[in-house]
Amino acid sequence: QLQLVESGGGLVQPGGSLRLSCTASVNLDVYAIGWFRQAPGKEREGVSCISSRGGATNYPVSVKGRFTISRDNAKNTVYLQMSSLKPEDTAVYYCSIGVGGVRYWGKGTLVTVSS
Predict the structure, then answer these.
(1) Which of 49, 72, 87, 106 has its CA 20 to 30 A from that of 5?
(2) Tell me, what DSSP letter sits at residue 73?
(3) Over the stretch 7-55, which tens digit does the pLDDT of each residue have?
(4) Is 112 exposed, middle or buried (0-12, 13-18, 19+ CB in 10 A)?
């Protein structure tokens, strides 16, 4: 069964950086992957996505220039490098892929940006 496991979350001060990882139980090299986040009381939103070979990435305005998505298909892992973090980036971060019409999600990793 396909599983996604996120890691790397934690408490960081405003302006700080974190790198999140998402490791899959299957080969990822044919799938596009996205990172999403959900803050308390808010809907889940996409924060980045990357094509299967890593040649194309996309970010919303809210994180563009601060977040960088990358992938290492040999390790079945996708990364989200986050810098210049703001309190409004506080959320549970999830990775997700779509396979055969089914969307799979990890359990998430909590990022808290606070002084």
Answers:
(1) 87
(2) G
(3) 999 999 999 999 999 999 988 888 999 999 999 999 999 999 999 888 8
(4) middle
Measured distance between the N- and C-terminal CA atoms of the chain, rounded to whole angstroms: 40
Q: What dihedral do alpha carbons 53, 55, 59, 63 form, nearest 10°?
A: 100
Dihedral sign computed on CA atoms, order 88, 93, 95, 101: negative
Count CB neighbours of 51 within 10 A: 13
Rg of the chain on CA atoms, in Å: 13
Model confidence over 74-115: pLDDT tens digits?
Answer: 999 999 999 999 999 999 999 999 988 899 999 999 999 999
- Strands (E) located in the chain: 4-7, 10-12, 18-24, 33-38, 45-50, 57-58, 67-72, 77-82, 91-99, 102-105, 109-113
